[in-house]
Write a structure and sequence with these properties.
Layout lengths: L1 E5 L6 E5 L6 E5 L3 E4 L4 E5 L3 H12 L5 E5 L6 E4 L5 E9 L4 E3 L4 E4 L3 E7 L3 H5 L4 E16 L2 E6 L4 E4 L3 E5 L2 E7 L3 H6 L4 E7 L1 E6 L3 H8 L9
Antiparallel strand pairs: 1-2, 2-7, 3-6, 3-10, 4-7, 5-6, 8-12, 9-12, 9-15, 10-12, 11-12, 13-18, 14-17, 15-18, 16-17
C-alpha cells in the first residue's frame, strides 16, 4: 500500500492507495472520511472482548475498530482524526516498540499489535495517563494529536518536555516527572510539571494541548445569571 498525509499540520488526513487485493488497514472507529465503494469494511473488537475493553478503559481507545480490506488494485481509503490537528506515521520495524499517550492511536497495519502498559503512578501526574498504549510489530502506525506534531531525537544529554504535550516515544527512552523549577515556579509560573527523558530514541510532542485551549476559552464563556 501507499499512503500520503495531506493538509498538514492543521487539518491532517491520510490517503491510502492499496496496491493489491487482500491488503488491509486497521482504523479507529469514526475516523473514516471516504472510501471506494468496493473496499470491504469489517467492524470488530480487536483482541476479543477482554482485549478491547482493556484498551478502552486503560488506553483510551475505541472498543470497536474497523478493518478495511482491498478487493482490487488501486482502491483508496481516506481517514482523519477527530480533533483538529496533526498526525504522523512510523514504519514499525518489529524490534522497537512505540508508546503512545491515551487517545493518540489512529490506525495501523494488522501486523501491529496494540496493548496497554502500566506507566506507574507518575503517569497520573504527567498528563500521559497512568497507562500507556504500546504498539509492537511491523508495518505502518498512524497516531495523532491536537495541534502540530514535532519529533525530537533524544540523546545522552536528555530532554525536557511539558507533561501535557507528550504524544509518544520509542522504546529505549525512560522518563521521570519533575518540577520545572522550585516550589514558586511550580505554583506561579504556569508550567507545572515536566518530564525529563533520558536514553536514546525519538520523542513526539504536540505544539498545542486541549487543556491550554480550555483555559484560553474559559474567560469568554457566557454565564447565565441566577
Amino acid at each position: 500500500m501507499q499512503y500520503d498525509i495531506l493538509e498538514k499540520p492543521d487539518f491532517s488526513l491520510v490517503r491510502v492507495a492499496f496496491h493489491q487485493p487482500g491488503e488491509a488497514l486497521l482504523v479507529e472507529a469514526a475516523a473514516m472520511v471516504a472510501k471506494d465503494s468496493a473496499l470491504e469494511m469489517r467492524t470488530q473488537m480487536q483482541g476479543g472482548l477482554l482485549g478491547a475493553a482493556k484498551r478502552k478503559l486503560l488506553g483510551g481507545e475505541s472498543v470497536f475498530q474497523n478493518t478495511f480490506t482491498a478487493t482490487a488494485p488501486g482502491q483508496q481509503l481516506w481517514f482523519a482524526p477527530g480533533p483538529e490537528g496533526d498526525l504522523e506515521v512510523v514504519e514499525m520495524d518489529g524490534r522497537t516498540p512505540i508508546f503512545l499517550s491515551s487517545g493518540a492511536f489512529l490506525a495501523s497495519a494488522p501486523t501491529v499489535q496494540l496493548d496497554t502498559k502500566w506507566g506507574g503512578a507518575k503517569g497520573f501526574f504527567s498528563g500521559t495517563g497512568m497507562f500507556l498504549l504500546v504498539a509492537q510489530g511491523t508495518g505502518p502506525l498512524f497516531f495523532c494529536a491536537y495541534g502540530g506534531i514535532h519529533a525530537v531525537d533524544v540523546g545522552p544529554a536528555g530532554y525536557i518536555c511539558d507533561t501535557s504535550h507528550i504524544v509518544g516515544f520509542t522504546g529505549g527512552l525512560e522518563y521521570t516527572v519533575n518540577k520545572v523549577g522550585g516550589m514558586k515556579s511550580l505554583f506561579f509560573s504556569g508550567e507545572g510539571l515536566v518530564c525529563t527523558f533520558r536514553g536514546q530514541g525519538r520523542l513526539w510532542i504536540s505544539t498545542r494541548n486541549p487543556s491550554g485551549l480550555v483555559s484560553f476559552v474559559q474567560p469568554f464563556r457566557r454565564v447565565q445569571s441566577g
